Fold ExbD/TolR family protein.
Amino acid sequence: MRRRNDKSRREPTIALINIVFLMLIFFLVVSTIAAPLDANLALVRTEGIEGTAPRMC
């Protein structure tokens, strides 16, 4: 009987870790490059909105 090579079983995990690490770096760089929001920006208030579905015609 041949023993399985342990190295071949570890490769998918290492590849997944590499992809997640690259995505993390990408999002960190993109978030620092993005332009800041305008200081005069006013957010919408939703506390008084009714939660009903629109009427069907």
Residues 10-34 form one domain. Helices lie at 6-33. The chain has one helix and no strands. The chain has a mean pLDDT of 82.
